[in-house]
Every structure is written in structure tokens, then in C-alpha cells.
Design brief:
Layout: E1 2-3, H1 8-37, E2 54-55, E3 62-68, H2 73-91, E4 96-102, H3 106-109, H4 116-145, H5 157-164, H6 172-180, H7 185-197, E5 202-203, E6 205-208, E7 211-212, H8 219-230
Parallel strand pairs: 3-4
Antiparallel strand pairs: 1-5, 2-4, 3-6, 6-7
Organism: Deinococcus cavernae
Pfam family, one: Thioredoxin_4
Keywords: Disulfide bond, Oxidoreductase, Redox-active center, Signal
């Protein structure tokens, strides 16, 4: 999971000070790394499902929320390994509705001057606004496939426009205007608050019918949680 970094006496004091400083820096880096790799604790979540894009059938019994940042490399791994199994066994069979909640935190976490995590989230919302669930899910796949280094601001507005060309049926002029005018900032801020209200501390985090799964990267654990919810 990606998570939320003289004299002998004087020489001795300098050495101790250096070691303490190194330790503090190490602890800070560990904290940042932990925010990017440690599973969130279990718990119950509350979501405004009606506001979120999803994949699956309207009458699916179980609701699964996947919280991701488009810049998160572990989320990319989730989309390439775990998500296809969920799609085949649960989404396509009508058993679950798989919702996407985008929580753009990585750019700030990395101290980047450009909040391109948020730009990517805004772009996703722009596509969803125009093309609905199918458009959003197609764009999500495109973004993860094109993902760059999380430590660099690769998801610029210009790059996002280039990628959006690959979304079938998307009005590129409307998309560009939506992104350039920050028309979906409020929606992204609402999604961010929803994630934080549910005490999400890293991505990906998965909730099954509101219950957080301890290890979201384990298909077996997700399967167990979903099968229990289906009973």
C-alpha cells in the first residue's frame, strides 16, 4: 500500500548530534514510506455511493469501494493483478458494484510544487461528468497504464489532455475546458473529505459493504470478505 517524512568533547557532541539528526531524518522518511506501503487498520466506513463512479450491475448485492491515487504505484499493481480477478469473478457476474474513490494525496506527500495527483483526480471527474461510468473506467485504465514516477509531476494538465484523446466518445474540447477551469475541484475535494472521514491512510484501501479489508492487495482476503457479504 502506498502511504502518508573543535576538541574531543566537541567532536563527540558533533558526532552525537549528527547521529540524532540522521535518526530523525530516517524516522521521517520511514513515516512517509509507511504511508505509502502499510495496510490501513480495519474499521467501518460510510460512503455516498451515489456520487461515485462504479463498474458492475445496478442491482449487485455487495458494494466494494476501492480508494486509489492515480499516481500510486501500488494502485497500478492492484489494477494489474487484483482488479482483473475481481472483475471476472464478481463484477461481470453481477455480484458486486465496484466503486472508485480517488484520494489525491501523493503529490503533497512527496512535496511536489505541482499537485498533479489532484489534476489527475479532476480529470477523472471531468470524464465521469461527460461519459459516465464507462468513460471513467476507461480513463482510469489509461491513466494507470501511462503512470509515471510518483516523485515527479507527470500528470500535468497537458499530459492528461493527451491521454484523454484515447477515451472513446469524449468531447475533447469540453474535457479541456473542464480541466483548465478546475470545474471539478469541488467534487474532488468532496471525495478527499470522504476518504479522510473514513480514516483512509494509504492506497489502495478497499471497503466491502463499508467494512475495511486489512490487506487490500490480497485477492484471497478480498474474496473472503466479499463471499461473507454475499451470504
Amino acid at each position: 500500500m502506498t502511504r502518508l517524512s573543535g576538541n574531543n568533547s566537541n567532536n563527540m557532541m558533533l558526532l552525537v548530534g549528527t547521529l540524532v539528526a540522521a535518526l530523525l531524518i530516517g524516522l521521517a522518511l520511514f513515516a512517509v514510506s509507511k504511508k505509502q506501503s502499510t495496510p490501513a487498520a480495519g474499521g467501518e466506513g460510510t460512503f455516498n455511493y451515489a456520487s461515485l463512479p462504479y463498474a458492475g450491475q445496478e442491482d449487485a448485492k455487495v458494494s466494494v469501494v476501492v480508494v486509489e491515487d492515480f499516481k500510486c504505484p501500488v494502485c497500478k499493481q492492484f489494477e494489474e493483478t487484483v482488479a482483473p480477478q475481481l472483475k471476472t469473478n464478481y463484477v461481470d457476474t453481477g455480484k458486486i458494484k465496484q466503486y472508485s474513490l480517488v484520494w489525491p494525496f501523493l503529490s503533497k506527500n512527496a512535496g511536489l510544487s505541482v499537485d498533479d495527483s489532484k489534476f489527475a483526480a479532476q480529470a477523472g471527474r471531468c470524464v465521469y461528468q461527460e461519459r459516465g461510468n464507462d468513460g471513467f473506467n476507461a480513463f482510469k485504465t489509461i491513466l494507470f497504464r501511462a503512470q509515471g514516477d510518483e516523485r515527479q509531476a507527470w500528470a500535468t494538465k497537458e499530459r492528461l489532455k493527451e491521454l484523454a484523446v484515447n477515451v472513446e466518445g469524449l468531447d475533447q474540447a469540453k474535457f479541456a475546458t473542464c480541466l483548465d477551469t478546475d470545474a471539478t475541484v469541488a467534487a474532488v475535494d468532496t471525495d478527499t473529505k470522504m476518504a479522510e472521514d473514513n480514516k483512509v491512510s494509504g492506497t489502495p484501501t478497499v471497503f466491502v459493504n463499508g467494512k475495511r479489508v486489512e490487506n487490500s492487495m490480497s485477492y484471497d482476503e478480498l474474496k473472503k470478505a466479499i463471499d461473507e457479504a454475499l451470504q
